Amino acid sequence: MSEDFNDNKTIQAQSSEAISGGGSGIGADADYVRPAEVADQDLYHGHSFITKWIFCQDAKVIGVQYFLLATFTGIIGLILSWLMRLQLGFPGLAPFMTAEHYYQFVTMHGMIMVVYFLTALFLGGFGNYLIPLMVGARDMVFPYLNMVSFWSFFVAVGVLLASFFVPGGPTGSGWTLYPPQAILEGTPGSGWGIMLMCISLILFVAGFTMGGLNYLITVLQARTRGMTLMRMPLTVWGIFTATVLAMLAFPALLVGALMMSLDNVLGTSFFMPTILKAGEVLEYGGGSPILFQHLFWFFGHPEVYIVALPAFGIISDLISVHARKNIFGYRMMVWAIVGIGALSFFVWAHHMYVSGMNPWFGFFFATTTLIIAVPTAMKVYNWILTLWRGNIRLNTVMLWCLGFIVTFVNGGITGIFLGNVSVDVPLSDTYFVIAHFHMVMGIAPLMVIMGAVYHWFPLVAGRFLDEKLGKWHFWLTFLGAYSIYFPMHYLGFIGVPRRYFEMYDSPYVTSAVGMNEFISIAAFIVGAAQFILIYNIIKTLKTGKPAGHNPWQACSLEWLTPTVPPEHGNWGDRLPTVHRWAYDYSVPGAKEDFITQTTPPSEVAHTKVEKT
Amino acid sequence: MSDFKIEGYELKPGFKGMAKDTGSDQTMFKGVHWGKAMMWIFLLSDTFIFSCFLISYMKGRGSTIIDWPNPSEVFGLHVFGVDVPLLLIAIMTFVLITSSGTMALAVKYGYEKNKKMCGWLILATAIGGLTFVGMQAFEWGKLIHEGVRPWENPFGAPQFGSFFFMITGFHGTHVSIGVIFLFIYAYKTFAGHYDEGKRGWFTTMKGDYVEIEILGLYWHFVDLVWVFIFAFFYLW
After folding, report:
1. Most exposed among A163, A384, A389, A497, judged by the fewest C-beta atoms under 10 Å?
2. With contacts defined as CB-CB under 8 Å, which chain A residues touch B31?
3. Res A11: pLDDT
4. What is the pLDDT averaged over residues A531-540?
5. What's the CA gap between A20 and A601, in Å, rounded?
6. pLDDT at B205
7. Using 50, 70 and 90 to split pLDDT, how confident is the model at A495?
């Protein structure tokens, strides 16, 4: 196996090199970066097809694998949402849509989109691809573990999708999987379905833990020379903090899923109270359903920020690059990310205002929920101030960024409504809630993903995506998403409850029917518009405009690799040396409107660049 | 570790040093092996798992309507005609804590590159762990024989059986995984894999004595968790 390791002298640490700028001259002292602390990473280079593309240990390939599998799962979630909208807009049109199926699709859509699509895509996809490149590492610190992480995710997705084919079908208890009904007869998939869901979640958590340890240690211990924490791009900060949240929040989900499996299989009563069913007392008794809700939401709320923080980070970088301005208040942005992350562990019970818990609890959690709006609002102001008087390129990436800001503000404001107990109680379990969370953690992060795909595709594939198709994709998605979710707020105000299969002859019918049809048609169009991206990717993979080196004139390290797309090991025979933060755009006096992170100070001594 | 030095970087003690290290480039924990940092963070995550288990247990115990059984009776042993409460648990705890001691010594000898002592001490740790798991199996067998099941319990609240089997089972799994790795590491130590830097079977990374310390961290953590389980389950 030894021939698989590149032991030749070209890939060695630059530890003996002391002064990068040479011995003489004024710049030499300013350009000094102290030598490397640890020896260069020793990497396994696969040669066969299997070790290069399937069981691959290269973080970039693993990132793409995560991206593709998460997207595949997301498309299944999208199709499920179509089927749900078909039923809601045009009840009875599809005879196979029974109430059972409707609940199963609600559940699977929710779980797939939150966990298997957004989380996997942001952390597994973007995290794997971007972290080593952005901090100047050759790879993740534990490449083998990283590979196992992806394949655990693969098995988790397999188990999840297998539940469509077991007796009783997938679970239909809603994505929150609340007991007791999740495992009682009468709920669809109460036997096999919920079992497979729990197993799949446990596998996902195990796989994610392996990946998460990689992201954390790579950021903490494997940065390149000169890369301090406060010089990292905000993308890395977002993914890093989200990973910390995940490492501390997923345990609660793991424990909840395990205890629920035991309730289901062994007949324990962790979450099961005494239950009367058709006049008979069931074997269960003495457990606490509220305990599950606490465990679930101790995971569930940080989960919202596990999705949101990477989105915050990525959008900051995209806006900065395409507005040709440094990010406004970089340190404030970092502390806001960290602060949101810390606060997110103290707000979970705002999902449980109507669960019957002590009202004082609601008071506490309403307060913390409103406090978390402060750092979040700071971030929004900073994005807008970054755009302010910037040299904005109104390309597809920027459109997605602008779309994100609008959508996020929109969803954030309804969140302040719902954070207050007295407003939440009448609105809970209505379409207002659906509209809120789809805006804030569905559409907004999705816009970031889209922007990020258009931004980093030239790095991954070496070619630009088609701008014209991209603009069609954006406008259809943006206007369409608003057509779907804006009316839903109104549906919520008139009291249409969520998770109802049909409205039957309720008084809502008259005013809600037309709107439901409109929403459904918009949903079909928006869903279909996403396939424009897939067509765009397939088309431009071969025929797109070649991107070359650093096509967006960005400062951050991922664009500065010797080859595009970067090869295994990322940096050729010499690791980059970092002298500044990732945001030196439009510096007065500089030759170009960007100064890369690797540019030594002596080269830009005549400009007004600040020391970062 | 006072002779530890980094070229071009002055290490400072205390909080000032911590702030300086955090603000510096390359690494946050100076001189800490990647695997060791990873194990610490993994253990933090694992702490949350066990905390969730124990908090759920407290909630379950606090809210059941049927009385919780008296642990010193349930976990008592009848030896030589005398009822001794918590006898088996006391021995189990003693064995596990002792194995932590042998593990710590193994780490010391590992860094001294004393292959023989190190290997024997790892083996002793593994046997301690195995004894613990064996006694736990005996205890499970005894309780099952007396009619305790995850779903029922002749001594009182059925949740007693549920939480007992789940939490000790989860901890026992941790110990068993540790024992498997201890045996593997004992073999690797005796075979000299750490001296020659032989590459791992799966990870293909070069072997180093630091791996023993990393496994040691895991092992001490498993012991520490046991102390909490012991306190909350057997003494409460």
Report:
1. A389
2. 37
3. 40
4. 95
5. 11
6. 84
7. confident
Residues in chain A closer than 8 A to B60 (CB atoms):
270, 287-288, 291
CATH of B36-235, one of 2.115.10.20, 1.10.10.10, 3.10.20.310, 1.20.120.80: 1.20.120.80
Provide the token pair at A33.
């970066």
Per CB-CB distance under 8 Å, the chain B contacts of A47 are none
- In A455-554, DSSP assigns E strands to none
∠ CA A548-A552-A553, rounded to 5°:
95
State whether A258 and B22 contact (CB < 8 Å): no
Q: Cα(B61)–Cα(A489) distance, rounded to whole angstroms?
A: 42
Whether complex ipTM tops 0.85: yes
Residue B79 has pLDDT above 80, yes or no: no
Q: Which of B 143-182 lie inside 8 A of A, CB atoms?
A: 150-151, 157-159, 161-163, 166, 170
User: Which of A15, A266, A291 is facing B150, going by the closest CB pair?
Assistant: A266
Considering only CB atoms, which chain B residues are within 8 Å of A42?
Answer: 205-206
Q: Is B52 on the interface with A (CB under 8 A)?
A: yes
User: Two tokens at B96?
Assistant: 């596990």
Please tell me if residue B62 touches chain A, with a CB cutoff of 8 Å. no
Task: Indicate if the pLDDT at residue A23 is higher than 70.
Answer: no
Q: Which residue of B has its CA nearest to A249?
A: B48
| Residue in chain B nearest A245 by alpha carbon | B45
The pLDDT tens digits of the residues spanning A347-386 come to 999 999 998 888 888 899 999 999 999 999 999 999 999 9
DSSP per position, B16-35: HHHHHHHHSBS-SSTT--HH
**Most A-contacting residue of B50, B56, B144, B214 (CB-CB within 10 A), to test interface:** B56
- Termini Cα distance of chain A: 44
Contact B25/A220, CB-based, under 8 Å?
no
Q: In DSSP terms, which residues pair with A594 in a beta bridge?
A: A585
Amino acid (1-letter code) at residue B149? R
Q: What is the spatial distance between Cα A572 and Cα A9, in angstroms, rounded to a whole number?
A: 12
Neighbours of A247 (CB within 10 A): 21
Kindly indicate the confidence band of residue A28, based on its pLDDT and cuts at 50, 70 and 90: low
Chain A: residue whose CA lies nearest to B57: A270
Report the distance separating Cα A315 and Cα A309, nearest Å: 10
Among chain B residues, CA nearest to A290: B59
CB A217 within 8 A of CB A141: yes
pLDDT in tens, B140-188: 999 999 999 998 888 888 899 999 999 999 999 999 999 999 999 999 9
Nearest 5 degrees, angle CA A437-CA A440-CA A445? 120
What DSSP character marks residue A327?
P
pLDDT (mean) for A216-227 = 95
The answer to whether residues A388 and A335 touch, using CB atoms and an 8 Å cutoff, is no
Helix, coil or strand: residue B84? strand
Q: Encode pLDDT of A152-179 as tens digits.
A: 999 999 999 999 999 999 999 999 999 9
Residues of A in contact with B69 (CB under 8 A): none
Q: How confident is the model at residue A3 (pLDDT cuts 50, 70, 90)?
A: very low
Residues A442 and A383: their CA atoms lie apart, in Å, by 20
Q: How far apart are CA A538 and CA A98, in angstroms?
A: 37
- Encoded tokens for A128: 């794997």
Whether residue B38 and residue A141 make contact (CB cut-off 8 A), yes or no, is yes
Residue/partner pairs of A155-158 with CB below 8 Å, 24 or more apart: A155/A203, A155/A207, A156/A116, A156/A200, A156/A201, A156/A203, A156/A204, A156/A207, A157/A69, A157/A73, A157/A116, A157/A200
Q: Cα–Cα distance between A168 and A546 in angstroms, integer?
A: 51
C-beta separation of A171 from A163 below 8 A: yes
* Both tokens assigned to A463: 């070619």
